[in-house]
Amino acid sequence: MNRFIVLQLSLALAALPLAAQVPQEDSQSRADSSKAGAKPAAVTYLFPEQITVTADKSAVVDLHFKVANGLHVNSHTPHSDYLIPTTLKLPDSNGVRLANATFPPGADYAFAINPQEKLSVYTGEFVIHAELVASRGNHLVEGTLHYQACNNESCMPPHSIPVAIDVIAK
Predict the structure, then answer these.
(1) Whole domain around residue 164: which residue ranges?
(2) N or C: which terminus of the chain has fewer CB atoms within 10 Å of its end residue's CB?
(3) pLDDT given for residue 111 in this prediction
(4) pLDDT tens for residues 127-166?
(5) What DSSP character marks residue 26?
(6) pLDDT tens for residues 67-121?
(7) Total domain count for the chain?
């Protein structure tokens, strides 16, 4: 078995104790998490909170996210099948449909133990271009961003965060 795969499996098993730990955070993440009284997520949805679109027409909306300092998440198209991709889902039943989502390309990242094996990851801020189609009216959309965050030593269990958008379709 390839040393990199063994490393990844070891990191995944080591993630169980890490799940109880809180990743390093910036002051904005601390402020956001103190509101809800929960530990901060490794990825934060930044904006938009509200958009206005033309009813029954396709509209591209830029959804902004931020990965906590010291962490990375697999891109939407990781280089290996066993890695968990970052995905975006919107429920179909609320008058707003996700017609398409365009994810940014991931940045190549390698561990020092095997620099030839590259991971495709997001760090810092990234933007997903979501193509939405909404029926006339005001719709509160509660989508989810699903990802797996890692640091240089181990990975946390996969996690999802809410992506709430008030969509006004005129």
Answers:
(1) 3-169
(2) N
(3) 77
(4) 999 999 999 999 999 999 999 999 888 889 999 999 999 9
(5) -
(6) 999 999 999 999 888 899 999 999 877 799 999 999 999 999 887 777 888 899 9
(7) 1
- Torsion sign across C-alpha atoms 25, 6, 121, 132: negative
Q: Is the peptide bond before 91 cis (omega within 30 degrees of 0)?
A: no
Identify the three-state secondary structure at position 46.
Answer: strand
The helix (H) or strand (E) run that includes residue 58 is: strand 58-67
CA distance linking residue 160 with residue 69, whole number of Å: 18
Q: Tokens 């033309």 belong to which residue?
A: 54
The token pair at 3 is 């040393």
Supply the CATH number for residue 32's domain: 2.60.40.1250
The separation between CA 88 and the C-alpha centre of its own chain, rounded to angstroms, equals: 7
**From edge to edge, which strands make up the β-sheet containing 125-134?**
43-47, 58-67, 125-134, 96-102
CB 109, CB 160: distance < 8 Å? no
